[in-house]
Design brief:
Radius of gyration of chain A: 24 Å
Strand content of chain A: under 5%
Largest interface: A-B, 72 and 59 residues
Distance between the termini of chain A: 11 Å
Distance between the termini of chain B: 27 Å
Helix content of chain A: over 70%
Helix content of chain B: over 70%
Low-confidence stretches of chain B: 269-277
Low-confidence stretches of chain A: none
Order of helices and strands of chain B: HHHHHHHHHHHHHH
Strand content of chain B: under 5%
Largest sheet of chain A: none
Largest sheet of chain B: none
Shape of chain A: globular
Order of helices and strands of chain A: HHHHHHHHHHHH
CATH topology of chain B: MetI-like fold
CATH superfamily of chain B: MetI-like
Mean pLDDT of chain A: 84
CATH architecture of one domain in chain A: Orthogonal Bundle
Number of strands of chain A: 0
Structural class of chain A: mainly alpha
Radius of gyration of chain B: 22 Å
CATH topology of one domain in chain A: MetI-like fold
Number of helices of chain B: 14
CATH class of chain B: Mainly Alpha
Number of strands of chain B: 0
CATH architecture of chain B: Orthogonal Bundle
CATH superfamily of one domain in chain A: MetI-like
Structural class of chain B: mainly alpha
Mean pLDDT of chain B: 84
Shape of chain B: elongated
CATH class of one domain in chain A: Mainly Alpha
Oligomer: heterodimer
Chain lengths: ~325, ~280
């Protein structure tokens, strides 16, 4: 458990760093965000909005230290200020409305991509020298493709040209949100293309990473030994080699999460998916600094939680981390 | 072989960025009467809604996209070298602090942070965008370099340098750094691609300088000009393809280097493996 405690400590520290960064950014960047906003909107901002924004940032005449304490206090009550785009809605409300869409979409897509990518990597390492090697160049190419470009291509082919899938929104205009099968079907139908985008764009990393570790593992003595004992190929491949090769893969998967989330944000924008990415775009377009910062904070914390979950998986899979005496 | 193909691709794009605009000579922003033309003999890659030639834009865009990529990779790598080598060499409390800092930046999602930072920029020129991307992109390099420094600093020549009274800074930058140049080079190339991707994402959001033509801003205008609904595939396919090809070239170089270091990764047909299937 010492492993988990140490990781948890690190994530708490990182969360604090993200929160503090969030506090410092408007103060360290050149110019006063409030004046910047007023200038950009050419004075078209309600005075209440300006006031709310000053409060949200804790910008006041008090000392920096006092401002920081006020900011932490607000945050502890879940107060992220008011959005300028959706004034006078609280930023926390805007985020709470959009976050479930993103978590469901990105979470499911990432899991699918991890499972398929890792399995493909294992197979490709096992069947090296066969036609499966042909996947390598494709994976190498896909690994640097921008997510939003994959999204554009999919929209073009399957949305506009073939018209198989809807290309925007999270559910059809003709269904009422609710616990009905019809609504669920519409949601799944609309989530198909964005999810496929994230799976395609993030899978290549998993394939390449898993294949490389797996190839190294296949050369280990215990794999040769397992084969010499006459175990079935399937058993050697999954229970002996893949079982061990997956450990470093989990670590690199956790580190890539931030990248996946960044790509997913842009993917949502292409599909006008009502998640946190589309809200971020609205924030950017309207110079809505409280909204942008609130979203940054929430995304960061979400990535930290996901990292911690990956660590838990690691502990389950690697008995060495469970040893008390280290 | 992989390295050669990879280098070929990278050199091609580097030449395109450096020499291409001189060969073409046209103004990438110049509009014309023939809007939304598909690829033809006159316009090899077709035109945009306002009749701008896409090939010209791609070639000029290479300058901005790769320029931002290289510039921010240079900045990010300077940071990475500083943090990684200093932490790895000194160890102790300095290393602890720098490692924690590195790991924090490694875990924090880069793109949302870049977006927030870019949102605050009063002017979004090439330079400031490059700096913002670099600030969020140095951690991976620093981590790799720190690990390498840890192993190099125990070697005899470093001990000898210390014994002969060289100062720590001289040892770090004149004894250790030259040994790590191959590592720095690969991490530099990886950062270039990450930065090109980040710039494309920023421009696509409309958060970079949209008055200059870059691959990202081309995608931004394609998306906002409804290129998809009109069916103008020639407008949005080329910029993304260029980004992906540069990434492929770089990955090939890196994999090639990996395979030299770890022969098992090579895709040569081995009889033993065949028997196993």
């Amino acid at each position: 458990m010492r492993f988990l405690a140490r990781r948890l400590g690190f994530y708490l520290l990182t969360a604090w760093a993200a929160i503090t960064l969030n506090f410092l950014i408007p103060r360290l960047m050149p110019g006063d965000p409030v004046e910047l906003l007023v200038a950009r909107m050419k004075g078209n901002v309600e005075p209440e909005a300006i006031d709310a924004m000053r409060r949200a940032f804790g910008i006041s005449d008090a000392s920096l230290w006092q401002q920081y304490l006020d900011y932490l206090g607000n945050l502890a009550r879940g107060e992220l200020g008011r959005s300028i785009t959706f004034f006078p809605t609280e930023v926390s409300t805007v985020i709470a409305d959009s976050l479930p869409w993103t978590v469901a979409l990105v979470g499911v897509a990432t899991l699918i991509s991890y499972l398929i990518g890792t399995s493909l990597g294992v197979l490709m390492a096992w069947k090296r020298g066969t036609w499966l090697d042909g996947v390598l160049p494709a994976a190498t190419f896909m690994h640097a493709v921008p997510y939003f470009w994959v999204a554009l291509a999919l929209v073009f082919v399957f949305g506009v040209t073939l018209q198989w899938f809807p290309v925007s929104r999270a559910y059809g205009l003709d269904v009422m949100p609710g616990m009905t099968g019809e609504f669920a079907a519409s949601v799944l139908y609309h989530a198909a293309l964005p999810a496929i985008t994230i799976v395609i764009a993030s899978m290549a990393d998993r394939i390449l990473g898993m294949r490389n570790v797996m190839v190294t593992t296949l050369g280990e003595d215990y794999v040769v030994m397992a084969e010499a004992k006459g175990l079935t190929s399937r058993r050697v491949m999954w229970a002996y080699a893949a079982r061990n090769a997956i450990l470093p893969n989990i670590t690199s998967f956790a580190l890539s999460l931030g990248f996946v989330v960044g790509g997913s944000v842009l993917t949502e924008i292409v599909f006008s998916y009502p998640g946190i990415g589309s809200m971020l775009l609205k924030g950017v377009e309207n110079e809505d600094f409280p909204l942008m910062q609130g979203i940054f904070l929430v995304i960061s914390l979400a990535v930290l939680v996901a990292n911690f979950l990956a660590d838990l998986a690691y502990v389950v899979l690697d008995p060495r981390t469970r040893q008390e005496s280290e | 072989m992989k390295i050669k193909i990879g280098f070929g691709i990278l050199v091609f794009f580097a030449l395109m960025a450096l020499v291409g605009p001189l060969l073409i000579g046209a103004d990438p922003a110049a509009t014309s009467e023939d809007g939304l033309q598909g690829p033809s003999a006159e316009h090899w890659l077709g035109t945009t809604q306002t009749g701008q030639d896409i090939l010209t834009q791609i070639v000029y865009g290479a300058r901005i996209s790769m320029g931002v990529g290289v510039l921010s990779a240079v900045i990010a790598n300077l940071l990475a070298i500083l943090v990684g080598l200093v932490g790895g060499y000194f160890g102790g409390a300095v290393d602890e602090v720098l490692s924690v800092l590195t790991n924090i930046f490694l875990v924090l999602p880069a793109l949302p942070l870049i977006i927030v930072l870019a949102g605050y920029l009063p002017q979004r020129g090439v330079g400031s965008v490059a700096v913002v991307i670099a600030v969020t992109g140095w951690a991976w390099g620093a981590r790799v370099l720190r690990a390498q420094t840890l192993s190099v600093r125990r070697r005899d020549f470093v001990q000898a340098a210390r014994a002969s009274g060289e100062g720590p800074l001289r040892i770090i930058f004149f004894e250790i750094m030259p040994v790590l140049l191959p590592v720095i080079a690969t991490s530099f190339l990886a950062t270039v691609v990450a930065a090109i991707l980040a710039e494309a994402g920023l421009s696509f959001l409309g958060l970079a300088d949209l008055s200059t033509v870059s691959w990202g801003s081309m995608l931004y205008f394609a998306q906002n000009g409804q290129a998809l609904l009109i069916g103008a595939w020639w407008w949005f396919i080329p910029p993304g393809l260029c980004i992906a090809l540069i990434g492929t070239g770089l990955a090939l170089v890196n994999f090639g280097i990996d395979e030299i270091a770890n022969p098992r990764l090579r895709t040569v047909k081995v009889k033993v493996r065949k028997a196993r299937t």
